[in-house]
Amino acid sequence: MNPHSFEKLLVHPVPRLLSVNDEPTAEEKALVLAAISRAKDEINSKGRLSKCCEDYKHAGALQRFIREGCSMISSIRRLPVELIREIIIYTVHDPYPDLDNPPYLLGHVCRLWRLAALSIPLLHSILPRLRLQKYDDTSAFSQHLLQVMPTVPFYSFQLSNISGPDIHPVANLYFRTSERWKHAFITADASALKPISTRLVRSNVPMLESLRLHIATSRYAGPCYAFENAPCLRTAEIECPTLFLLRLPWKQLTKYKERSGRAIGIPFIIYNGNPIEHLTYITAQPDSLLVHISKATLPRLTHLDIRLYHHSSISILPQLTLPSLQELRVRHPGTTRLFQNITNLVIRSGTAGSRLNLRRLAIYAKPPKPLELTHLLLRTPYLVELECNDIPSEDLAQIAKLIVYRLPGQRPLVPRLCKLTIYSPSASTFDSINKLIDNRSKYDGPQLDHSPLEVIRLVFADAPTCEEASSIFDVARPSNQRIYEDLSNLLTELDVLTASYKSGRHQGLLQALSDWRAGRKLDSLLSALESIKIDDPRLIEVRALSILKKFWLLDSCKIPQESKYHFIRRAHSLLDVWTAAFRSQPNVNSNRWIRHGLRSLLHLRARGDEDGRERDLIDGEYKFVDEPALFWPYEDHPDT
After folding, report:
1. Residue among 180, 65, 35, 161 nearest 121 (CA)
2. Nearest-CA neighbor of 211 among 222, 219, 200?
3. How far apart (Å, rounded) are the C-alpha atoms in residues 367 and 89?
């Protein structure tokens, strides 16, 4: 197609629909649908694109045109205002709100949604994250708080960098209205604990439902009584690397997470009959748990997560009986008896005549002995997801065979297993892993007595080890390694910046100067990414799309100098081009293994759907990589 014809193809037939929310006439809708159809035909006529950067740009422009056309005739833009209001109010009352993505972002859908959002004061009940600085010019933000707080019956917030003994003036605005707190995320220095307790007067948080309290200190944090009387508190997340005397209504909590140097709430949480449902404990100190944990049955606990980043043995699992347990995650390299302890827990927690309904199991420990994991899996027939490090070939062979060797008459081993993650797999097990795929990925119909294995993920301790495994598994790699490494380094830099923007920014004169510099730096980075010629589509891996997509999804107010450099629009355009290049790879749906992240390889079972895996990687469950939830044995360390 010549350039003139291509430009005509990208002209919307009813441009007025780009700027209004009016219902299109039947004739206008037909014109838009015809234009979308022509653009799709143009993409399909090209088939797999040649190794030409211009082809990817054209395909990206066509995809953008199709997306805009679909949005023009989408009924989302013309929902009744009453329904939009109900949707927004529902998100405001979410019991587990995402404080990083507040409900007011729904007002960005289109003009109609913005008008509906402006009529709902409750939309401001989740305040933007605020990071306090000593020299901040906070008058504008203070005025915003003074306008918003009287209009909402409750509000949620994130407040960082509180230090004492003199509390920041803006922080005082929050504390004066603490009787309306619903969800609070506070990061404070130990010196601020006493004034915080004084201002809250121990009982001034009657509506507080969830609390995240992070204390940044390397010395004794002291006591905190501010949240002792919180009748609605059900969820708490506490982080403190040193001794911290915190008083909470421990017996009423249903979800508790602690990252600490010395145990804070664990001794008060683990007692017989406690109604706790989710419990997480993370520590790097071998002497963190100085008190003895008595034997206890926690009848409602469904999720238990214990991560010990030291090599001493702490006896928690042997003390517990958990009849409702569905998910167990344990990192404990300090004992050789972990697999036996988990096996005993599973046996002990099962009810008479039935097995424990354990669905997800994640273990990171000293490498298990051959068949040690198999003996555990014999007692977990309902297991759907399994994560473990250094799985021996003998155990992989037993999982592959379905029936345990020398035990005829046994049911298939973990017959419902769909997802398997192996940390630090050795090269000697690679053949066993491929055989496991051959045996467990087959599915001949509903009469089969096992579910097919849908996903296997291999996670390595570092990128070079993953690169070596890629060669052994014959993973498709780009021909120009230098350009690939340059692109990878730029993506890593963008990923770091995205994380820093997402964590929140503060206001003020110094921040304005910092934003000016940060804007120029980000412009230089995006320009470098835009200048890379994609002559080989294998340059674009899932990680590249993931990082760019995470940046594009940021709230524009968190990106420095966005209005000047139009970073989000540029990232979206680049994402369209890269997605077109990724789709053009013939190996996406045919290769057994793909490179998923810097340190992971991924196998997705072919389901007979030609583009199924491609959709999963671009828009589905596996579109994001390098998340802490995946690399928890390596990255979720209290000291990082």
Report:
1. 180
2. 200
3. 50
- Cα 211 from Cα 200, distance rounded (Å): 14
Within a 10 A sphere around the Cβ of 403, how many other Cβ atoms? 13
159, two tokens:
């407040």
Rounded to whole angstroms, the Cα distance separating 571 from 574 reads 5
Contact 490, 525 (CB under 8 A): yes
**Cβ contacts of 521 within 8 Å, gap of 6 or more:** none
Chain centroid to CA 69: how far?
Answer: 31
Q: Is 524 exposed, middle or buried (0-12, 13-18, 19+ CB in 10 A)?
A: exposed
As a residue count, the chain comes to: 640
* Per-residue pLDDT reduced to its tens digit, 309-367: 877 777 789 999 999 999 999 998 888 899 999 999 999 999 877 889 999 999 999 99
Residues 6+ apart with CB under 8 A from 419: 384, 385, 386, 453, 454, 455, 456, 457
Please tell me whether residue 503 adopts helix, strand or coil conformation. Answer: coil
Q: What's the first-to-final CA gap in the chain, in angstroms?
A: 53
Helices 430-440 and 393-401: crossing angle in degrees, nearest 10, is 10
pLDDT tens string 382-433: 999 999 999 999 999 999 886 555 455 566 789 899 999 999 999 999 999 9
Q: Are 255 and 277 in contact (CB under 8 A)?
A: yes
Radius of gyration of the chain (CA): 27
CB 481 within 8 A of CB 630: no
Q: pTM of the prediction?
A: 0.86
Does residue 59 surpass a pLDDT of 50?
yes
CA–CA distance, 6 with 4 (Å, rounded to integer): 5
Give the phi and the psi of residue 246 in degrees, each rounded to 5: -115, 135
Complete DSSP assignment for 370-421: TTHHHHHHTT-TT--EEEEES--HHHHHHHHHSSPTT-TTPPPSSTT--EEE
**What are phi and psi for residue 319, nearest 5 degrees?**
-90, -10
Give me 299's structure tokens: 């009848």
Distance between CA atoms of residues 332 and 310, nearest Å? 8
CA–CA dist 173, 168 (Å, integer): 9
Could you tell me which residues are beta bridge partners of residue 363?
330, 388
CB 283 within 8 A of CB 308: yes
The tokens for 56 are: 């990817």
Q: Are 435 and 397 in contact (CB under 8 A)?
A: yes
Q: Which residues pair with 236 in a beta bridge?
A: 211, 256
With contact defined as beta carbons under 8 Å apart, do 359 and 334 qualify? no
Domain ranges of the chain: 3-77, 79-118, 127-253, 481-635
- Scored b (16 or more CB within 10 A) or e, 461-479 reads eeeeebbebbeebebbebe
The number of CA neighbours under 13 Å toward the Cβ of 137 is: 6
* E strand or H helix at 71: helix 53-72
Contacts of 11 (CB under 8 A, 6+ apart): none
Nearest Cα residue to 159 out of 171, 149, 177: 171
How far is the C-alpha of 323 from the C-alpha of 316, rounded, in Å? Answer: 16
Digit-coded pLDDT (tens) for 7-21: 566 788 888 887 777
Q: How many CA atoms lie within 13 A of 326 on its CB side?
A: 6
The total of other beta-carbon atoms located within 10 Å of residue 389's CB is 21
Angle at 65 between CA 59 and CA 71, to 5 degrees: 140
